[in-house]
Design a protein that fits this description.
The protein is mainly α and 228 residues long. The protein is 68% helix and 0% strand. The protein contains eleven helices and no strands. Helix 1 packs parallel to helix 9, helix 6 crosses helix 7 and helix 6 packs parallel to helix 8. It starts with a helix and ends in a 12-residue tail after the last helix. The mean pLDDT is 92.
Length: 228
């Protein structure tokens, strides 16, 4: 390993770490409601929920948007256009709002630490010229940090699985050891999806209907720990 390779790995570890202030701790992607509204939504299992989210949302929507954003190489106007495409392709308002809030939190953290492009894109969010969806912001920022496409996808996939496992622990659905076991089982799914080619105009799509219904019903689940 060269010194350059070592720095790249360290940067990936820094920005994939749960201690980085990304704002993701506030969102459960429907996990909270799905686990509480079994009378309306049917039997719940965390492994099934996690695998559906990775296979049918992250792999086909978030990963696609991230890769396409990364390839725009900091073109803020093109990123804003992609931002609106993500908005239009996300059916449930709770998921749209969560993605925008999470992206805004992430770009704010990066503006404060001086990541190139973060301050300018944050200004576009404030002006209403861009929406700040999380995957788009990740693509912008991680490219600016010098992370290659494969590393960016790996961080995104790992965070998608790890954040859901952390949410499940906070909700009391599983313990910390079981959470790590479930993340380990999800890693091959992430790795397999990461190998699929992405065209520069690849459509952004997802199919997680029960999770989307859960997000829509989130307010009916009683006391809420998460925003969606």
């Amino acid at each position: 390993m060269t010194a350059t390779d070592g720095i790249g790995l360290l940067v990936a570890l820094q920005h994939g770490d749960s201690q980085f202030p990304s704002g993701g701790f506030a969102f459960s992607q429907g996990l909270e409601a799905a686990s509480q509204l079994v009378d309306q939504l049917g039997p719940f299992s965390f492994p099934g929920f996690l695998h559906a989210q990775i296979g049918h949302r992250w792999a086909e929507a978030d990963r696609i948007a991230l890769v396409r954003a990364h390839r725009l190489r900091g073109d803020l106007s093109a990123l804003a256009t992609l931002d609106h495409e993500v908005e239009a392709s996300t059916f449930v308002e709770g998921l749209r709002a969560g993605s925008r809030r999470n992206g805004a939190a992430l770009v704010t953290s990066h503006a404060r630490i001086g990541t190139p492009g973060a301050t300018a894109y944050r200004a576009m969010l404030r002006e209403g010229a861009a929406l700040g969806h999380l995957a788009v912001v990740q693509g912008l920022l991680w490219h600016a940090l010098g992370l290659d496409e494969a590393s960016a996808v790996a961080i995104s996939g790992y965070q998608a699985a790890a954040s859901l496992a952390t949410a499940a622990v906070r909700l009391g659905l599983i313990g910390a050891i079981e959470a790590q076991a479930e993340v380990a089982r999800a890693l091959p799914l992430i790795a397999e999806a990461s190998l699929r080619a992405v065209a520069d105009d690849e459509p952004i799509r997802s199919f997680v209907p029960l999770a989307e219904i859960a997000v829509a019903l989130h307010g009916a689940a009683g006391q809420r720990l998460f925003s969606n």
